[in-house]
Amino acid sequence: MLIDRQIKQYRALNKWFQSPLGLFAAHEFLVNLEHESDYSRGETLLQLGNCGDNIWLKKFNHVHKWIASPFYIANKVHIECALHQLPLDRNSVDCIIVPLTLEPFANSFSLIDEIDRVLNPMGFVILLSINPWSLWGGAMKTGLLHCYSDQKVKMRTPFNLNRIFLQRGYRQYSLSNFCYIPPVNNSSLIKKFTFLDEIGKMLWPFPSGFYCYIAQKYQVIEPVLKLNPAESPIKDYQAPLQPVIFSSQSAGLYPSDKIQNNIDY
């Protein structure tokens, strides 16, 4: 995806997270991510795309927390770049968060391949995505949900996403579904519909609006075949002392002497 289109799409996404419906979705992300803790600590965390106030980041205990975005925001964005061309070394990040960032890449796997490149072995990738079979997915398809600058996005099911990561050597760590209210952009209506979050888990006839898919990167361990030279030269081997073998010739005795000695004895 071209950088100009990325800027338009993710500017619109950042603006949407500041709307009443976007603020509610951010709070749902926060609540959903606080149940697990194995992936919430490490050295370096990277989030792809800036999404409003990013309130869910406070749940992570990583030493470094970076946000990569195609456009710059003071005091928020740390890496300004195309999201499928990150200026980071291979195997340099412990955890990557993808909050509604994958959808604008449609059928392209360039973002997923870039995530695989920079993520450390045994690292975690967290994808927060819209369920295409939910009311939120239907609103996105019909143009009623304005998360992006246009509707040229592709929503993936958890099954499809898991298959893609399995092909790259990942294993599903967890999968959770959340948010059962209709996508209405009105604060008062959102408050009235909040009871559906609890009832929807048991009775709501439609799937949840979002799902959180977490996968862990596995990599085959191979032996290092590089030979390291010895720091100091090896000393010459010296054979230990051998036991002395007594023989008659070494004692100066000859066969005739041995016979004479035997006779005298």
Give a short overview:
Pfam families: Methyltransf_11. The chain has helices at residues 3-16, 20-33, 110-118, 135-141, 158-166, 187-193, 196-199, 255-264; strands at 44-48, 64-69, 79-80, 93-99, 119-130, 170-178, 210-217.
Characteristic key phrases:
single chain; 265 residues; alpha/beta; Rossmann fold; 7-stranded mixed sheet; 28% helix; 18% strand
Question: What does this entry look like structurally?
Answer:
- By secondary structure, the protein is of the alpha/beta class.
- It has a single domain, classed as Vaccinia Virus protein VP39 (Rossmann fold), CATH 3.40.50.
- The protein is built from eight helices and seven strands; from the N terminus they run ααββββαβααβααβα.
- The chain has helices at 3-16, 20-33, 110-118, 135-141, 158-166, 187-193, 196-199, 255-264; strands spanning 44-48, 64-69, 79-80, 93-99, 119-130, 170-178, 210-217.
- A seven-stranded mixed sheet has the order 3-2-1-4-5-7-6, sandwiched between helices.
- The longest helix has 14 residues, at 3-16.
- The model has no long low-confidence stretch (mean pLDDT 85).
- It holds the Pfam family Methyltransf_11.
